[in-house]
């Protein structure tokens, strides 16, 4: 599969390539959160037509073992969105920069969060174990003391 960037290719064309290549793992990289909707900052939810197009395309193509990684929040959390026809939700792992985090917890709603918000310095990790022949994926947020939150993607 040839590498491509969503920023250089129209969304539909880029994601549509998933159907041609049948990847065993798909990682969608976004500078802003895809799944979270309620907060007042930048997110895909500010562009409802584009978000709807993305979800419909993911529903139609059903790429295996798909995870979103996002940032630009200065906090970390893992959010989930059910996609029709998928055996598991789409996970959006949001991590902060290693040196920039919130100074205090703000009152903010994310109804799609499946983990508590992390305001300490954190980073995201995707681990893929291929030992069984099929990918076994674990996504986590980590900090100075190690794993803060972790979710195993079950296909």
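^ structure tokens above, recovered residues below v
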């Amino acid at each position: 599969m040839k590498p491509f960037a969503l920023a250089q290719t129209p969304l539909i064309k880029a994601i549509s390539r998933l159907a041609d290549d049948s990847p065993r793992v798909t990682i969608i990289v976004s500078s802003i959160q895809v799944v979270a909707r309620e907060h007042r900052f930048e997110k895909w939810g500010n562009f409802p037509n584009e978000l709807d197009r993305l979800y419909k395309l993911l529903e139609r193509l059903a790429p295996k073992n798909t995870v979103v990684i996002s940032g630009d929040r200065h906090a970390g959390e893992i959010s989930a969105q059910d996609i029709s026809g998928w055996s598991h939700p789409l996970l959006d792992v949001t991590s902060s920069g290693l040196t920039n985090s919130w100074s205090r917890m703000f009152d903010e709603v994310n109804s799609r969060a499946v983990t508590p918000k992390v305001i300490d310095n954190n980073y995201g990790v995707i681990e893929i174990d291929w030992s069984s022949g099929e990918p076994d994926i674990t996504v986590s947020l980590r900090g100075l003391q190690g794993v803060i939150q972790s979710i195993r993607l079950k296909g």
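Confidence is low (pLDDT under 50) at residues 1-9.
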